[in-house]
Amino acid sequence: MSLDDFWYDEEELLNCYAKAYQRNIDCVAWTNGLYTLRAVESAINNVMPLAVGIGMGGGKIKPIEYFDKPLTEIKEESDKEKEINEKESVLTEEGMMNGMKKLNNIIN
User: Fold this and answer.
1) What is the mean pLDDT of residues 51-74?
2) 35-40: long-range contacts (C-beta < 8 A, 24 or more apart)?
3) How far apart are CA 51 and CA 36, in angstroms?
């Protein structure tokens, strides 16, 4: 936020900037907490897999691996996959509709 915006614009603009900043801080803190949780979880599980499995009420459980990519890259990849799947479904629906129209034209 520039000084001119701070001094001369409406107070609501400052509140919006403050809320956006707080959301950004919350998101970063949550992401750091998730990375820490995954690191501790994988360390404990890989050091004591049998004890963790027994504590969870079962036998040995499979090892947990730490993230191989940052969460933002994982999210971008999943978003791209969703977009591709949506495009494929649209294409197949359009293809089916075009095929039905052609079939109706041939029959009529």
Assistant:
1) 66
2) 35/67, 35/71, 38/64, 38/66, 38/67, 39/66
3) 21
pTM of this structure: 0.48
Does residue 46 carry a pLDDT above 70?
yes
pLDDT score at 11? 87
Q: Which two tokens stand for residue 52?
A: 């963790």
Q: How many CA atoms lie within 13 A of 66 on its CB side?
A: 10
CB contact set of 67 (below 8 Å; sequence gap of 6+):
35, 38, 74
Tokens 């609501």 correspond to what residue?
A: 12
Residue type, 11: E
